Amino acid sequence: MIKRVILSLFISAFLMFLIPVDGQKAKHTFRLSPTDFLLDDLPFRIISGELHPARIPREYWQHRIQMAKAMGCNTISVYIFWNYHETAEGVFDFSTDNRNLSEFINLVQKEDMWLIIRPGPYVCAEWDLGGIPPYLLKIPDIRFRCMDERYMAAAERYIARLAEEIRPWLITRGGPVVMLQIENEYGSYANDRAYMKRLKEVWTANGIDIPTFTGDGPTTYMLEAGTLTGSAVGLDSGSSPENFDLASRMNPGVPVFSSETYPGWLTHWGEEWAGRDTASLLKEVRFLMDNNKSFNFYVIHGGTNFGFTAGANSGGKGYEPDVTSYDYDAPINEQGVPTPKYMALRELFESYLPKGKKLPKIPDSIPAIEIPMVFMSRFTSIWDNLPQALKSVTPSTFEAYGQDHGFILYRTELIGHKKGKLIVTDIHDYATVFLDGEYIGRLDRREGINSIDLPAGKKENPVLEILVEAMGRINYGQLMIDRKGITERVTLNGMTLMNWEVFKLPMDWKFVYDLRSSGRVMNKPGVFYKGNFSLIETGDTYIDVSNYQKGIVWVNGHNLGRYWNIGPQKRLFCPGPWLKTGMNEVLIFDLHTLEAKPVTGVKTMK
To answer: Which pTM value belongs to this model?
Structure first.
């Protein structure tokens, strides 16, 4: 009898061990055949919609997943941003707010969908530094995305930590995660084959026992440098028979799919809103459907580059910082509303369903509200909130001073030359210049402006101040080593200026919380404005900052991101969960505006 009881307890404990956690379902299998993805040994076509948990308020994750399903997707694809989860060197966060990946994955499974994970280490994604942590830029000769020992030590630490989070959710353990990407578009960047192979080995060593894939443009050189034997081939994008045939020749024996089919496109500051017409998109999707190709919409819903997360490009126009909105002209817009493009794709997918089958009902949109005019008042200035200065013989970068984002003020006395041509080599990325407290002008990396004519000062030794804003770090191409601030030196008529005071202004939560008003009124740009408004109900809104010039907006302590009057974006998305019934607060820091002006909340971005 006792033996039977012990045996029964042992079996019960063993069965409990086998039960997937958090309500996960019975195990399935997912593997690669030479031509197809196989789910439970049957051919499976992936129709995926890309979402980025970091860009979507946590409260809206389930809604956006349901929206993708209702459009016709059976899979969700996610980028995971390394620098969003390793918030400081060796410090990881996978539990707070938008960083709780387990919660997101659980929601995907609850909606009976599959999940593709794209963890980098490099992801691009129009995200600051392509997801790589800025602390690595403290190393003067660091090289990214290769077998540089310093980079690889950090990348392998990240992979090991991330593997702990996703391992319980693999399809091999009853979860929804079917496939993982190795790096991202590596063939566009470099040709270190040892690096790509090592990344795959590290994932395997950390217990990630699901199929892998690579993603590259459909060209011979990109596929040769970027693909891996035994990993499926993703094409960015795959839009013709020739694309798929080339990939099959370059890396035979594995399935090929379109890992990024683009329904829209990204937008930089100073441009018109980018987009893609629906007719050409539908034609491309019909080709994929008619030829039984798997594909992933990049992106089905973009969300928002809250805070300082937006990246930048460095194309033929030079430095091109990305706007705060990541609307992307996607089928689901920034606020989560289905667009005409969404409805057209949904209709197309429904036409391929078996007779009598229907797609799920489209979830209701999140309510949007208007906020009447909020009268702002001058609160304080950056000049009244300077921290203790650091001493620096010559100015250096943000990263050298241990700062990732925000602003830094550089200050020195002029000895020798007192006026003339001031050159900053180089400015990253935008600066306002002052002499004896008077505004002289601006420097702008985007426009290639790194010099200014200094007039004669009023003092024997005039005081020069350069307030530098760090915008997005370059996230694609060969110029990703993109340090911020003054990256080399400052000269006046060819003379190098020495002996600087450096004031770190990270504009993070603590800095903003500690702001204090001195009661002084200074006619010196760099002012914080504050306003209050009361709500009887909450909902999504867009804070219209058309009356302001360049800066940052916070609502109830949440950083909505950057604005700039060069456009095209003049309204910043404020999610409903960040508002509250009763009194709310909006705070604006503007680099140029010297007079308080009202703001409003409106229902749409445009």
So the answer is: 0.94
